[in-house]
């Protein structure tokens, strides 16, 4: 090694040290290289402490996993938002259609047709409690029938089918889940409800919110009060 150094200082053609010998010397004496910060800087190298473990690849892997999860969550949120926007748009169109109703029978027909065409439901009906009759196209419930279905003070119920034939008649077999929303019509009030029937057992479940169907029901309630039932006490 000494001879190699002397040759390097002489600057002759044999001045370059033999690389295997130099490499072996550096491996045996690494402190000379690691502590020469000026040389490291010139070579574009940065020393790393011997007790530092490189976590770069693992950190990048975790970062990629986080990005993928966030991307998946964002896509799911976007899909839900698009579905909600579409449902709201269909609800608004349905409301405009209901406002054009000419009488009670036309109101029931429009509600049923709109819910089938725009929401994929099997049926949507308006039901009115006895005593008294109901407009043509509406369903009649026994006295206290709304209380039996929704409870004394219940405003809505979503889930399995109840009173299927009473509410949906011949279409009851096609209904696998229901959403029921209470109404009070006229003065003195008569208890009533709107029943939405889905062909999917998971179409309406107790965990779901009912804001949109409640909104449609409130519109039905207001429109229905335009015209009185002629024989409410019969």
Task: Tell me what you see in this structure.
Mean pLDDT is 82; it is low at 1-13. Helix 5 packs antiparallel against helix 6. The radius of gyration is 39 Å and the shape is rod-shaped. The longest helix has 44 residues, at 56-99. With 234 residues, it is an alpha+beta fold. The chain starts with a helix and ends in a 10-residue tail after the last helix. It has helices at residues 2-10, 19-28, 30-34, 37-43, 56-99, 104-119, 145-150, 164-168, 211-224; strands at residues 123-129, 139-141, 156-159, 177-185, 190-198.
CATH architecture of the largest domain: 2-Layer Sandwich
Mean pLDDT: 82
Using the CA coordinates, give the radius of gyration: 39 Å
Strand tally is 5
User: Would you tell me the structural class of the helices and strands?
Assistant: alpha+beta
Ends distance: 121 Å
CATH topology call of the largest domain? Beta-Lactamase
- What is the succession of H and E elements? HHHHHHEEHEHEEH
Q: Proportion of β residues?
A: 5-15%
Q: Numbering strands along the chain, what is their spatial order in the largest sheet?
A: 2-1-5-4-3
Number of helices, counting only DSSP H or I runs of 4 residues or more: 9
Helical content band: 40-55%
CATH class of the largest domain: Alpha Beta
Profile the largest sheet.
Answer: 5 strands, mixed
User: Unreliable stretches, pLDDT < 50, 5 or more residues?
Assistant: 1-13
Output the CATH homologous superfamily of the largest domain: GAF domain
Number of domains: 2
């Amino acid at each position: 090694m000494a001879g190699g150094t002397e040759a390097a200082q002489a600057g002759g053609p044999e001045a370059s040290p033999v690389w295997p010998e130099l490499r072996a010397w550096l491996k045996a004496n690494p402190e000379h290289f690691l502590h020469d910060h000026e040389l490291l800087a010139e070579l574009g190298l940065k020393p790393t402490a011997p007790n530092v473990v490189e976590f770069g690849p693992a950190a990048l892997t975790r970062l990629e996993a986080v990005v993928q999860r966030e991307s998946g969550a964002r896509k799911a949120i976007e899909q839900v938002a698009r579905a909600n926007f579409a449902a709201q748009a269909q609800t608004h169109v349905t409301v405009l259609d209901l406002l054009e109703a000419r009488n009670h029978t036309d109101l029931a027909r429009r509600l049923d047709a709109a819910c089938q065409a725009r929401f994929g439901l099997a049926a949507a009906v308006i039901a009115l409690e006895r005593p008294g009759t109901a407009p043509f196209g509406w369903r009649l419930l026994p006295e206290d029938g709304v209380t039996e279905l929704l409870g004394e003070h219940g405003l809505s119920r979503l889930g399995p089918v109840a009173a299927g034939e009473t509410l949906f008649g011949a279409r009851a077999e096609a209904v696998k889940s229901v959403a029921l929303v209470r109404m009070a019509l006229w003065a003195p009030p008569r208890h009533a409800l709107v029943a939405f029937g889905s062909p999917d057992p998971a179409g309406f479940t107790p965990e779901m919110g009912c804001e949109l169907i409640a909104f449609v029901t409130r519109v039905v309630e207001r429109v229905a009060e335009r015209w009185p039932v002629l024989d409410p006490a019969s």
